[in-house]
Amino acid sequence: MIVENIIGDFETGRIRLTESCEMEVSQLQGICDSWNEGDKLLLEGDCFEEDYIEKCLKNGDLPPMPTATIDKYSIKSIYTKEDNKLIGFYDMYHGYPNEDTLYISMFLISMEYQSKGYSSEVIEMLKQEAKKRHFKKIGLGVHLKNWKGLRFWFKNGFTQINGIYGEKEYSADNFSFIGLECSL
What we know:
By secondary structure, the protein is an alpha+beta fold.
């Protein structure tokens, strides 16, 4: 991976995306905590750790491969341009599971800003930026019980299934996720 393939900060019509920083830790963790208080445990079987964002900024949330390095990882804060409000974040790894794939491992928008088009706006711009940097696809995983998330990603072009992972049998206490991809 060459350095110019790393996706930097960018803006869309209504939002601004910047590299997350230590000054934002409490706000970003608050967004995680609100998801913990909502459906995260029910849909995914676990909650964010209380220092999740701090760990991401320090060590990254690296994919499970021996060659993963923090220099290919980034976490981006999502701000509204209108009032400069921090409304969410996403993180990505440049080159997982292969060098041609940009992988989103987390994408979260505050509840009060969901269903207003902000997330789709981010994804559309991210697709354009990834394509400019010669990525062939964007990949991610969605928990199978997260119907809202599955609908969102499918609506935004993530229609290729690359696998189903996790528990093989269904139960209220078992959790699995589906790997989705979008060709660029």
